[in-house]
């Protein structure tokens, strides 16, 4: 199964990053390619990719606040994103691992580019919310 792993550091504390990471309604602010999100029942939500208003994609989010982990599963294409926050003093390391099914392996390079942009935006947005 194709995977990729990336890490970025932000000057923001874990709590500031967590506010953005565990709330699907905030994803369009930082996750490249996500235009709109509608929250659903429980941990389910629907995401619309940028430029595809007629292509809703069901998603499921699992959050572990105590361990600062978020898992997002695309219920359409079976991609899985595992996010983890690691405090380092006042800064935070943001890790993400993406797992793609074999039938989606051709999307690995695109997912890397999307996640690199998303991580940079998430780190900057979290830092801008700090006093």
Question: How would you describe this structure to a colleague?
Answer:
With 131 residues, this protein is an alpha+beta fold. The chain has one domain: Alpha-D-Glucose-1,6-Bisphosphate, Chain A, domain 4 (2-Layer Sandwich). The protein is built from three helices and seven strands; from the N terminus they run βααββββββα. Helix 1 crosses helix 3. The radius of gyration is 14 Å and the shape is globular. The mean pLDDT is 94. It holds the Pfam family Polyketide_cyc2. It comes from Paractinoplanes rhizophilus.
Question: Could you write a compact summary of the structure shown?
Answer:
By secondary structure, the protein is α+β, with helices and mostly antiparallel strands. 25% of the residues lie in helices and 40% in strands.
Q: What is the topological layout?
A:
Blueprint: E1 3-10, H1 14-21, H2 27-30, E2 34-39, E3 44-49, E4 57-64, E5 69-74, E6 80-88, E7 91-99, H3 108-128
Helix pairs in contact: 1-3
Pfam families: Polyketide_cyc2
Organism: Paractinoplanes rhizophilus
Protein name: SRPBCC family protein
Q: How many domains is the backbone divided into?
A: 1
Helix content: 25-40%
Order of helices and strands: EHHEEEEEEH
Number of beta strands: 7
End-to-end gap: 42 Å
Biggest sheet, in brief?
7 strands, antiparallel
Alpha-carbon Rg, integer: 14 Å
Structural class: alpha+beta
Strand order of the largest sheet: 1-7-6-5-4-3-2
The name of the CATH topology is: Alpha-D-Glucose-1,6-Bisphosphate, Chain A, domain 4
- Tell me the β content: 35-45%
